[in-house]
UniProtKB/TrEMBL annotation:
Pfam families: Flavin_Reduct
InterPro entries to which the protein is assigned, alphabetical: Flavin_Rdtase-like_dom (IPR002563), NADH-dep_flavin_reductase (IPR050268), Split_barrel_FMN-bd (IPR012349)
SUPFAM superfamilies xref list: FMN-binding split barrel
Record keywords, A-Z: Oxidoreductase
Protein name: Flavin reductase family protein
Domain Flavin reductase like: 12-155
Gene Ontology molecular function: any one: FMN binding
Organism: Parvularcula mediterranea
Keyword Cell inner membrane set for record: no
Length: 163
């Protein structure tokens, strides 16, 4: 059956983004993640970020119940992780690929930036829920990002801190 949302998705695919894996602990305290490109910075004071969670995804319940989550911005060499965390049933962290800061939410090693967040607000909109996170801790590294463009991955230019 053809996808009735294909034309709209095709238009959305014109928007180039980075790739993140958003992660939390599920009800069994296991580290899980989902590939997300709806991540955005929202505010500096307080420091807030947002992302949109598809209410139909298998991990929606875990993210709706979690008080904390983390965002790992993927590096150019983490395409395999992006594909894996976007695959049905493939949401568990593998042994050794995660680490933890203050909130207990797991982050992926090898990221180019990470945000450890406390859930600040939630807004149900259409078939998604916008999750607003207050940044408790963050880091960033000089590295090349994974870029998502027209459903293809490309390697972005090296990002360093400016003046
Ligand atoms: C590049 C890319 C970006 C995605 N962005 C989002 C997003 O912002 N929010 C979301 O809920 N799902 C997003 N997804 C889809 C989820 O990753 C995917 O639906 C989920 O991992 C499928 O697992 P499930 O079948 O176990 O629910 C994205 C997928 C890809 C490949």
């Amino acid at each position: 059956m053809s996808d009735p949302f294909r034309p709209l998705k095709n238009a959305f695919a014109r928007y180039t983004t980075g790739i993140t894996v958003v992660s939390c602990l599920d009800a069994e305290r296991k580290a899980i993640g989902i590939t997300v490109n709806s991540f955005n910075s929202v505010s500096l004071e307080p420091a807030l970020v947002s992302w949109c969670l598809d209410d139909h995804t298998s991990v929606a319940k875990a993210f709706l119940q979690a008080d904390h989550y983390a965002v790992s911005i993927l590096a150019a060499d983490q395409e395999e992780m992006s594909n894996r965390f976007a695959t049905p049933g493939q949401h568990a962290f593998k042994e050794g690929e995660g680490e933890v800061f203050q909130t207990g939410a797991p982050l992926l090693k090898g990221r180019i930036a990470g945000f450890d967040c406390r859930l600040a607000d939630r807004l149900k909109v259409g078939d998604h829920t916008i999750l607003i996170g207050e940044i408790v801790h963050y880091d960033s590294f000089d590295a090349e990002p994974l870029v998502y463009c027209g459903r293809n991955y490309i390697k972005g230019p090296k990002i360093s801190d400016g003046a």
